[in-house]
Specification:
By secondary structure, the chain is mostly helical. The protein has a domain of about 90 residues: Up-down Bundle (Four Helix Bundle (Hemerythrin (Met), subunit A)). The protein contains 5 helices and no strands. Helix 2 runs antiparallel to helix 3. The longest helix is centred in the middle third of the chain and has 37 residues. The mean pLDDT is about 85.
Length: about 140
């Protein structure tokens, strides 16, 4: 499974989105276990995809290419290495999210401290900002350009 999205990963492993029970406390033990499982599945899928990429790159390197194919081969290498770099950064974010679960800070905005929300975390389990703070950060980033 190369470059899986969160939704694809969840569905392919039969993990359904979390449905909080009525009156359930935010970031309950069950919720934290769900997100830990989700993050670990996603990380493992990315690692498996990375192994496939490395294998493919080794195979491409072994294929003798004539001069006209060399540019295409180099471009393919560059694209795959950039994708691998993005995956590596995502794996680091996943690891950081797991650390937040361990410390009891997962699911709360690192900027303002409010709940990020189950639905937002289902869509982006590595989110560290609530939607309002994320929107504000994006506006600031655009103004800084």
């Amino acid at each position: 499974m190369s470059n899986p999205t969160t939704t694809q990963t969840l569905l392919s492993y039969g993990v359904k989105p979390y449905e909080p029970k009525k009156g359930e406390e935010y970031m309950s033990k069950a919720q934290l276990e769900h997100f830990r499982k989700l993050l670990n599945i996603w990380k493992n899928a990315l690692l498996e995809g990375g192994d496939e990429t490395i294998h493919d790159l080794k195979e491409l390197a072994e294929v003798p290419a004539d001069v006209s194919d060399q540019a295409t081969l180099e471009e393919t290498f560059a694209l795959r290495l950039r994708a691998r770099d993005r995956e590596h950064k995502l794996i680091n974010k996943i690891d950081e999210s797991i650390k937040l679960i361990d410390s009891g800070d997962y699911g709360f905005c690192e900027e303002c401290g409010i709940e990020i929300g189950i639905r937002r975390l289902e869509a982006r389990p590595t989110a560290t900002l609530c939607i309002d703070c994320k929107t504000l950060a994006e506006v600031r980033e655009k103004q800084g350009r």
